[in-house]
From TrEMBL:
Residue span, EAL domain: 24-277
Lineage: Bacteria, Bacillati, Bacillota, Bacilli, Bacillales
Range covered out of full length: 465 to 748 of 748
Annotated source species: Salipaludibacillus keqinensis
Domain of life of the source: Bacteria
Name of the protein this chain belongs to: Diguanylate cyclase
Membrane-crossing segments per the record: none
Length: 284
């Protein structure tokens, strides 16, 4: 059926979840309305310094508060947003919301931190991206260095185009991170040319780090590679103290995962802020 579709996620979710094109159409209609009815929400997950145990930033992760289906996670609708092109509008909302929230927290007296935002390739390959980011930074007054754009290896496919976009984004002063590093199939050639700041080790490598020597070696190699290229390296999906210890011993710069916190709403972040900071410090 969908064999010719390059996107595995499309195949998986259409066959798993959507028994008819009607259901898919319903979800698409709902998703169009989601923006208008303000049903999208960002949750925030801490990113922690391995050395100091300080909160360095948060990653903004999109959720959809569906009126009847409840909270829907990105793996269940981002593919549809991409397929329908809705991701462009949604992605813009995510960038503005994340920047506004970060600026608001700074105004409210929270310690300045970085805000990471995921970009989909549909967004990345739009001519309007750079101008949009520039406007949001101007309108919110957020320091550009407090915004991190997470791209994936797939965006390195069109080398010249991507290099050009990334250079423009860098000129604005934002940070660039390669998400899910090691998961894609791209060559490593782009690493020496692209103006990037950090690599995020895909959580599939972190998951079994306590029992699988191959994963240990891959993770160590990524950390060494990043450091030799002058990049910071972040491990995602860290759930256990033992994983943290191991990653610390490999000198991984930043840690993100359920160990410190699941992604939480802005309200929860605020109400838990001080205990969150002290819990994180204790774990480190
Ligand atoms: P990602 O960018 O790699 O984000 C990390 C994912 O890992 C998040 O899933 C997060 O909740 C999850 N995670 C964090 N720590 C742990 C852990 O310790 N254990 C486990 N098992 N999982 C952990 P989430 O929020 O469901 O998002 C899934 C993916 O959806 C993201 O992966 C990202 O690729 C995409 N996504 C999320 N928000 C956005 C968005 O605003 N725009 C776009 N284009 N994509 C987004
Ligand atoms: Mg990410
Ligand atoms: Mg991502
Ligand atoms: Mg990831």
């Amino acid at each position: 059926e969908a064999k010719s579709q390059g996107k595995n996620r499309y195949v998986v979710y259409t066959s798993d979840m959507y028994h008819s094109s009607m259901e898919k159409l319903k979800l698409e209609t709902d998703l169009r309305n989601a923006l208008i009815h303000d049903e999208l929400v960002l949750h925030y997950q801490p990113q922690v310094c391995n050395h100091s145990g300080e909160l360095l930033g948060v990653e903004a992760l999109l959720r959809w508060n569906h009126p009847t289906m409840g909270m829907i996670y990105p793996d269940k609708f981002i593919w549809l947003a991409e397929e329908t092109g809705l991701i462009v509008e949604i992605g813009k909302w995510v960038i503005s919301e994340a920047c506004m929230q970060n600026k608001k927290w700074q105004k409210d007296g929270y310690k300045p931190m970085k805000m990471s935002v995921n970009l989909s390739s549909e967004q990345f390959f739009r001519a309007s991206l750079v101008g949009f980011v520039k406007n949001v930074l101007q309108e919110t007054g957020l320091a550009p260095s407090n915004l991190v754009l997470e791209i994936t290896e797939s965006m390195a496919m069109d080398f010249e185009y991507s290099l050009n976009v990334l250079r423009k984004l860098k000129r604005l002063g934002v940070c660039i991170s390669i998400d899910d590093f090691g998961k894609g199939y791209s060559s490593l050639n782009y690493l020496k040319k692209f103006p990037i700041d950090s690599l995020k080790i895909d959580k599939s490598f972190v998951r079994d780090i306590l029992k699988d020597d191959d994963d240990v070696n891959i993770v160590k190699a990524i950390i060494t590679l990043a450091h030799n290229l002058g990049l910071r390296v972040i491990a995602e999906g860290v759930e256990r103290k033992e994983q943290l210890e191991l990653l610390k011993s490999y000198d991984c710069d930043e840690i993100q995962g359920y160990l410190f916190s699941k992604p939480i709403s802005a309200e929860t972040f605020e109400s838990r802020y001080s205990s969150l900071l002290s819990d994180i410090k204790l774990l480190c």
